[in-house]
Amino acid sequence: MTWYNAATGLWDGAWWNSANVITTLANFAEQFPNEIKHITDQVFPTTLEKAPKAYGFTGFLNGFYDDELWWVLAWIKVFDVTGEKKYLDKAAEIFEDSKNSFGTSSCGALWWDKAHSGTNSVENALYITAAAKLANRRPSTPHSGYYYNEAIKAYDWFLASGLINSDNLVNDHLSAAPGCKNDLSTPIFTYNQGIILSGLVELAWSAPNPAKFNDLANTLATAGIKHFSDSNGILHEPCEPNCSSDLQQFKGVFGRNVLFMVNRMNGITAEQKATYTDFLKKNADSIWANSQVDNQLGLIWSGPKGSVTIQTQSSALDVIVGAACVS
């Protein structure tokens, strides 16, 4: 909480990153409520009330659909751990802005931003995941299929788009229309590999053919672990050691979604569960041994220790919380 400003409801003034910190805290609260309740009882309502005012936004809406959808996921998770309907209502309210724009991209789905500068993986994977989660929490509101149909529509588009390459890695964006092809020259990021995982797991809960969603989640998760991990099994972002503040957040998103698979995937095999559990524990152990100084957590989880930001701290905490949850 070193970086938290109660006057703004944000961590170090960071916008979408603060949504991820809220999600991290909610994950922790879900597993260890007594350890953090004195913090979350203050932080959750404070951020809900004050964060948009810090930048003059209206209801968590700004110029970027991915930013908005991070907040949707954050408030859904807070609803899950508090049971307070106001958080789910806020998530649904924010989601409407993306829903009203889905399909308007020149490539057929959701634009990354309201300036229409590109069609990326991040906002469309977030859209799938947000819609799937809302479908399971509001199955008949405002009417049956309202969110589920959006999730399936976006899922179908995502698979047809070619964003998942031949190595089962999720590329960052499509080329401009009329081409709309997977731009294989773009970097591959851990968060693009992770965002969709919990959405796929939740789609499987209510879909008539759940296996295809779980199979894709397992395929993407194992491909991500293989591609982004070093020989010791420690996750790295390709930009290390010189990652921007946004990129410093990415690895935790992947780890958080792997944890969701361990805890919530129906029909997960013992082998799959062992793979993901080992991944979380190994990375958490390495963070604590090699990237921690006075409880502050750095960017490179295999070491050496380096500078710490709210992004590196919360990203690493995602994996440490994950390891604690499966231990």
Describe it:
The structure is a single chain. With 327 residues, the chain is an all-alpha fold. Helix content is 59%, strand content 2%. It has helices at 16-31, 33-54, 65-82, 85-99, 121-137, 146-161, 190-206, 211-228, 250-264, 270-290, 310-326, and strands at 4-5, 10-11, 292-293, 296-297. The strands form 2 sheets. Strands 1-2 form a two-stranded antiparallel sheet. Strands 3-4 form a two-stranded antiparallel sheet.
Largest sheet: 2 strands, antiparallel
Strand order, main sheet: write it out.
Answer: 1-2
What is the N-to-C order of secondary-structure elements (H for helix, E for strand)?
Answer: EEHHHHHHHHHHEEH
Low-confidence stretches: none
Q: Helix segment count?
A: 11
Question: What sort of overall outline do the alpha carbons produce when their principal axes are compared?
Answer: globular
Structural class: mainly alpha
Radius of gyration: 18 Å
- Whole-number average pLDDT? 96
Strand share of the residues?
under 5%
Q: How far is the N terminus from the C terminus?
A: 25 Å
Helix content: 55-70%
Oligomer: single chain
The strand count comes to: 4
Keywords summarizing the entry:
single chain, 327 residues, mainly alpha, two-stranded antiparallel ribbon, 11 helices, 2% strand, globular
Short overview:
With 327 residues, the chain is mainly α.
Topology:
Elements: E1 4-5, E2 10-11, H1 16-31, H2 33-54, H3 65-82, H4 85-99, H5 121-137, H6 146-161, H7 190-206, H8 211-228, H9 250-264, H10 270-290, E3 292-293, E4 296-297, H11 310-326
Antiparallel strand pairs: 1-2, 3-4
